[in-house]
Amino acid sequence: MRAAIVGPDGARMRWVEIAGEEPARVYVHGLGATSAAYFVPVATRPALAGHRSLFVDLFGFGLSDRPAAFGYTLEDHAAALAATLDAAGVRGADVVAHSMGGAVAIVLAHRRPDLVGRLVLVEANLDPNPPSTAGSSGITRYAESDFLAGGYAETLDRVGPVWAATMRLADPLGLHRTAVGLVAGTRPTMRHLLERLPMPRTFVQGGQSEPVDDAVGLSAAGVRVVTVPGAGHNVMLDAPEEFAAAVAAAVNPA
């Protein structure tokens, strides 16, 4: 496990790293998740193995610290992630990011394109105010004080054992504030930022999920949209072999 001091009061962002060839591959988790649990099994498959791989936990989640003075907006997370990649000596990485982490990765690529050589978004949030069925909306139905008082425990019961296994490692305050930041989104929106990015971009979705809105518009902007049959929101867990193949096709130059 590695760490970099990139937050307030000496807060450390931590990651698990596998040595290998450059460019590095940076994996970023979704809301209430951790990167190693979601990505190590696919990143070590033959289609993706061999590259330097960093499995980064954002502030408030998994192995990383939980600074109360941190803002937990998408922009705050992207800035801390950029500082972490700077500390790790990463440039031009293949960034593979899931759900909320995908929204953070879009902001990262917009602000620091030197850090991102290729961007692979996995069921990423592209628009503010997601549907009421989304996990972030369920969390933000609680006021912050109510979430800390009992809403966190209710959420763990509601989301089921797989998500709860990593969500119980999250800081309740950071989880709630990150969900609020995700629902608020960015201005311009993550979708508009994504459409204007210069690097190769791929959006991976599960065939059992609702299709991404305006796939035609994304394709027109140069974003390759790939559907993995038989998978839901957690594409890498539901169809690991197919997911690894989709990511390999996105990050390996023709």
Automatic annotation (TrEMBL):
Annotated ranges, domain AB hydrolase-1: 26-130
GO molecular function: hydrolase activity
Taxonomy, superkingdom: Bacteria
Keyword check for Cytoplasm: no
UniProt KW keywords: Hydrolase
Transmembrane segments: none
Matching SUPFAM superfamilies: alpha/beta-Hydrolases (SSF53474)
Protein name per UniProt: Alpha/beta hydrolase
Native organism: Micromonospora solifontis
